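Re: the 385-residue chain
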Amino acid sequence: MKIVVRVRLEVSAYQADALAATLRACNRAANHVSRIAFDSGEKRRNGLQPEVYRHIKDEFDLSAQPACRVVKKVCDAYATLNATVKAGRLGPSGDKRRNRAESKPISFREYAAQAFDDRCLSWNTDQRTVSIWTVSGRLKGIRFTCSDGAAKVLAEHRRGESDLVHRDGRWYLFATCDVPAPAAYLPSDWLGVDLGIVNIATTSDGTVLSGRRLERYRKRMVHLRAKLQMKKTKSAKRRLKALRRREQRFATDTNHSISKTIVTTAERTSRGIALEDLTGIRERVKAKHDQRYRLHSWAFAQLGAFVEYKAKRAGVPVVRVNPAHTSRQCSACWHTHRHNRVNQAAFACRACGTTLHADVNGSRNIRHRAADAWTRGAVNRPTSA
């Protein structure tokens, strides 16, 4: 399985200037290549590279391998856009979002991340230094910092490209590591997980992992940002810059903690994990104006990805099930009616009279659906226990 290890570079002022100039040159070249690809319609690397290779080397002062990485970056961006359109995530043909995306070349920010392979970037994990190509020459002996566990993963499993990232005045390298995953075991049962906004995750065991702390934090940050934006002073702008991505980091840390709890519980009890397939929910759900921020701040995709990769590293099987009517169906008698869901927190079956916490009821329905899918063979089973 592939995981990403992030390390922070400790750079001098000269090294920072050289790295910044390198990103600017690479992204200017990428924008030039993107315009040619858009105008000519040639978005395959084998067809595009001979057409632009010599020009971007001479015009943007790139060496041979970085020039090839720039062309690949552009081709990958168009491939991603094409896949997004085919999946319907930008709407049907004629939709404003789709027309806006397809009507102009893909553009790259001045300091967008740039990928480097082993010809442009070499690692010394024992001394924790890297050597990297720049437009000002090769920079050697740049120290990086990371945890001991991350350094061990880098030394043993690093494969392929690494991305140079400039974020909030700091420099990072994101390295791809191919870590062997243990074979998934045959589950004795399933741990259903219901995802939500008020309660981030609720398990079929009855454990409610509340999002109240995260919700309070988000409200406070929204109020603080609005107050600072109204002031429009230099100090307020500096404070806004310092607060950038703080809410995102807080939500990411919360999702890491919750996903670790879920995977540990399933592994300890030899169960699999059943999640809802919530693909496209933001497009399907129509929220009121005052609820849109809550809906679009809901990082359910990130939480699901964290659960899946942690489960894979632990050998825990994961199943995605259809979430339709899980909040309206009784987990005891299977009666489905919209009035069964009394309110956000309460569920009362109109047929058998069962009363439960609404999210616990939903998680038990998810658990049953995972067991049915496993019994029917609708999911890939591990070959051995």
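The mean pLDDT is 89.
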